[in-house]
Amino acid sequence: MPCSSPSPLQSALIREIGGHAGFPALFDNLDRVAFFLKNRDFQIVFANRFFYERLGFTEESEIIGKDDLELFPKPLATKFREDDKRVLETGESMPRMVELFLSRQGLPDWFITNKMPVIGLNGDTVGIMGTVQRYDQARSLRSPDRAIAKAVQLMLERPGEIESLARLAKELGLSHRHFDRRFKEDTGLTPKQFLGRSRVQSGCKLLQNTDASISDIALDLGYCDQSAFTSQFRTRMGFTPAKYRRQMRSNAEAVV
Question: How many angstroms separate the CA atoms of 134 and 124, rounded?
Fold first, then answer.
């Protein structure tokens, strides 16, 4: 949704304080929330401690001027760039995007990203700012909506057993449309989106902890073939399943 114009009271304070008024220091103290601000060229201009430390840097100065292509695997960086371009071109926010990315340890984790335009004094969009924080997918297991809690549990624990979301909705006593609506209200994702991310997360665990072939893992997770699994895995994680398995085993050997 578009950013609302500041009120006269807000505008007066903005003119009075100028600059960033020490806000970066505040962002450094956000609890488990990464903050970033990029310019029109998609370069990092501000980043709080949680953001740059999560990427392996020790000082903000080390990350200033870098863009996503220098910080993330290309498939992920490309996705981030597409989102940033959309915010710049439309001037509209992209709130509560739930995604599955790799943590610093190379393990799959869920995150919520919020992106907003940075508006200049002339009213033009001059950059993008946003926050990233962990998404607690298990929160929906505690949902007062028992049907949704059960659906989340099935998707997290046995994603490969779900052959049809329409059939799952029927088993839960819901129409497909009501199931979609209630599920998104509780989780921020549609059932299809949640199931897709859960399958990729389960795939990471199987690739890391078993010697099963990638084709067998794909079938166990409910994909029609290895190609479909590989495509979804690369989109979410930035690597092919084979490369992810090699990297995780290489990391394990290095620790030993």
Answer: 31
- Report the top-level CATH class of 8-134: alpha beta
Strands annotated E in the chain = 33-39, 44-47, 94-102, 108-119, 125-134
Distance CA 95, CA 97 (A): 6
Top-tier CATH class for 137-250: mainly alpha
* Cβ atoms within 10 Å, residue 2: 9
| pTM for this predicted structure | 0.76
Q: What is the mean pLDDT of residues 13-39?
A: 77
- With tokens 């290489």, the residue in question is 250
User: What residue spans in the chain does CATH classification 3.30.450.20 cover?
Assistant: 8-134
> What is the gyration radius of the CA atoms in the chain, in angstroms?
21
Phi/psi at 116 (5° precision) = -140, 150
From the list 109, 214, 218, 223, the residue with the least C-alpha distance to 162 is 223
Name which residue leads in pLDDT, 186 or 219. Answer: 219
As annotated, the residues of the chain forming the CATH 1.10.10.60 domain(s) are: 137-250
Length of the chain: 256
Q: In degrees rounded to 5, what are phi and psi of residue 240?
A: -75, 160
Strand, coil or helix: 92: strand
Instruction: Summarize pLDDT for 119-165 with one digit per residue, the tens.
Output: 887 888 999 999 999 888 777 777 788 999 999 999 999 999 999 99
